[in-house]
Structures are given as structure tokens and as C-alpha cells.
Amino acid sequence: MRQAGRSLPEYRALRAGTAMLDACLDPEMASEITLQPVRRHDVDAAIFFSDIVVPLRLAGVDVEIKPGVGPVMGAPVRTAADVAALRDLGPLTPERLAPVSEGVARTVAALGSTPLIGFAGAPFTLAAYLVEGGPSRDHLAARTLMHADPETWRDLTSWAAEVTGAFLRAQVLAGASAAQLFDSWAGSLGLADYTAHVAPASTQALAAVADLDVRRVHFGTGTSELLVAMRDVGADVVGVDYRLPLDEANRRLGGRTPLQGNIDPALLGAPWPVLEAHVRDVVARGEQAPGHVVNLGHGVPPDTDPDVLTRLVALVHGL
Ligand code: 1CP
């Protein structure tokens, strides 16, 4: 959840003068940034420092992460010819993925018994960036394309599933212990659109690690109505954002799916007693599910006081 984020001074110091994607593709730097929050907060797992658009860059797409903005494309992808041009870039081979594999392998070696979570962006969220050309609020152009030209949409999301699946697989093969798929923007879709136009590509992406001995976590935001569909594309664990209490998420999922979540990141800035009461409530509700990975319901805000995170981890360990 962008836990290293911009909230750690040691992260900001290390990153100074290095562009985000260059940092992701420097195995030594990516590994060190991954370890920083583990050392500081004593969390039970690390999440690999990378970004969902890294496989796009490795495939040859003109993409940058602009400070204060997020991923921005040189040109949006909107037509059948644009998608054909993506295919012409060729497959994401293990050779092209080497900086990722090397970063993961170094990190796993340094972590010892602490597991590493590998991750990738889901095809819809990647397609949303590609079609929009950058971050957007309602992903209008992407949602238009899926209906205006369903064939091009299918090609695009299938291409995205291939590259993101290869990225996820490379991390697991290099030693990651879990595989998380982030469909951060799936919440802009209704269930019918998700099922018809997104689920097939997400199934394809998760299938890339299905033969490996690794649990698959699937997370989105604003996806309270999509939880069952998001499990049914092949997830073992469903990540729940901060909007839906975990006991209700568990009910919706029929009481048979382990959950991840869902401390509200906004409360990291509230007085400690308010945050503590909220965390206790999240843990109590999570007890109803067959398993619970305690986590935030979305990313750490960049201005979060790191000491609050350390205290929060200690509280959860105490519970
Ligand atoms: O702790 C970690 O560092 C984890 C590594 C990580 C992860 C899991 C990063 C590093 N990014 C991600 C996933 C990611 N990237 C998602 C899915 C999870 C989520 O919803 O947060 C998304 C949507 C992105 C795209 C992205 N990258 C954004 C969002 C922009 C938007 O559309 O609103 C942003 C701001 C980035 C940059 C980024 N990625 C990661 C970090 C640490 C940063 C900030 C870079 C910096 O300025 O220091």
C-alpha cells in the first residue's frame, strides 16, 4: 500500500535526485527501500518497492511517474492501431524483467524469515492509465472504449494481463511469498461491466501464477459491490478498502474467504485514542472471517507521522 510512500525521511533521502521508475529498476535501491519500513515498523511482511506501471516501462511503453501526479503516458492508447503497436513491442521476456527479478532476489535474501509480497496492477487499472493517458477521476475514456469498441478493449486488457502477469510471475519465481493484484480503480465500474469487460483479463493475469505455490490477494477501492466477482477471478484472499466493515465483507463473501484490510488511512492523522478504537474494531470484525491480514484500507498518506505507524503495528501485535 505504498507503505514506504513518502512518509519515511530515510526514503526521501535515498530517493532524492532519482526518478521514481529509475529507482524501481535499480535492484539495490529498490531492495533497500523495501527493507526500510520493515526495519522501522517491525511489520510481518514486506511489500516490494516497485510500481504497477513498471512492466509497461519494461515492455517499452513511454511512461513516467510525475511527482505529485502519478503515472503519465507519452500518448494515450485508444484505437485498434494503438493496441497493435503495443503488441509490436514484443513479449515481456525474463531478460527484460531481470531488474525486477534481481531486486526481488536481493530483497528476499536480506529479509530472512520475513516474507515478501509481490504485486502487480490489474488489467483494468493499467488500461485506465493507458487509455486516459494519466490519472483520472472517473476513467471516462476507458469506460467509453469498453463499450464503443469492445474488441479493441478486449485486446488491450488481454495485452495488459500478459505483461502484468509476467511481472507478477517474475517476482514469485525470484522468491516472493504472496502475489497481490491491485485493481485500484475497479470501483468506477458496476458489477455488470466488471463481469463482462474486466473479469476475463483479471482471471488471465492471476492465472500467470496459478501453478506456483503462492496465495493470491486481490484488492480494489470502492469495490464493496464487486467483492464476490473479484474473488471469483482466482483470488485466495480479498483485500477490502476502508469503506466496508470486515464483518459485512465476510458476510458478502459467504464466510469462506480470508480478508485483508481495512484500517482507514484517514485515521492515521486522528488523535491516538480515536485510531486505537478504530483498529480494535477492525480486528474484532476481521475475527469473523476465516483469516485476516491486518492492513490499511488504502495507501499511507505521505504526511503520516511514521511513529504512528510503528505504534499501530505494536498495537496489532498486542491484540
Ligand atoms: O511500500 C511501497 O513502496 C509499495 C510499493 C508500491 C505499490 C504497491 C508503489 C510505489 N506503488 C504501488 C502500487 C500502485 N501504484 C497502485 C496500486 C495501489 C494503490 O491504489 O495505491 C497504483 C494505483 C499506483 C499508481 C501510482 N504510482 C500512483 C497513483 C496515482 C493516481 O492515479 O492517483 C502514484 C502516486 C504512484 C507513485 C508511487 N508508487 C510508489 C510510490 C512510493 C509512489 C510515490 C512516489 C514518490 O513520489 O515518492
Which ligands does the model contain, each kind named once? coproporphyrinogen I
Helix content percent band:
40-55%
What percent of residues are in strands? 5-15%
The chain-level mean pLDDT equals 96
Q: Helical segment tally? A: 14
Order of helices and strands: HHHEHEEHHEHHHEHEHEHEHEH
Structural class: alpha/beta
Report low-confidence residues grouped into runs of 5 or more: none
Instruction: Count the beta strands.
Output: 9
General form: globular
With strands numbered from the N-terminus, the spatial order across the biggest sheet is 1-4-5-6-7-8-9
Our measurement of the CA-to-CA distance between the termini, rounded to an integer number of angstroms, reads 22 Å
The major sheet is characterized as: 7 strands, parallel
Radius of gyration, in Å, reads 19 Å
Describe, in plain words, how this protein is organized in 3D.
The chain starts with 8 loop residues before the first helix and ends with a helix. The chain has 319 residues and is an alpha/beta fold. The mean pLDDT is 96. The chain is globular. The strands form 2 sheets. It has a 7-stranded parallel sheet with strand order 1-4-5-6-7-8-9. A two-stranded antiparallel ribbon has the order 2-3. Helix 5 packs parallel to helix 9. It has helices at residues 9-15, 20-24, 27-41, 54-59, 80-88, 98-111, 123-132, 140-148, 150-173, 191-207, 227-232, 246-252, 272-286, 306-318; strands at residues 46-47, 63-66, 70-73, 116-121, 178-183, 215-220, 237-239, 259-263, 292-296. The chain contains 14 helices and 9 strands. Bound molecules: coproporphyrinogen I. The site of coproporphyrinogen I has 22 residues, from strand 3. Residues 2-6, 15, 20, 47, 49-52, 65, 67, 70-71, 119, 125, 135, 182, 184, 299 line the site of coproporphyrinogen I (1CP).
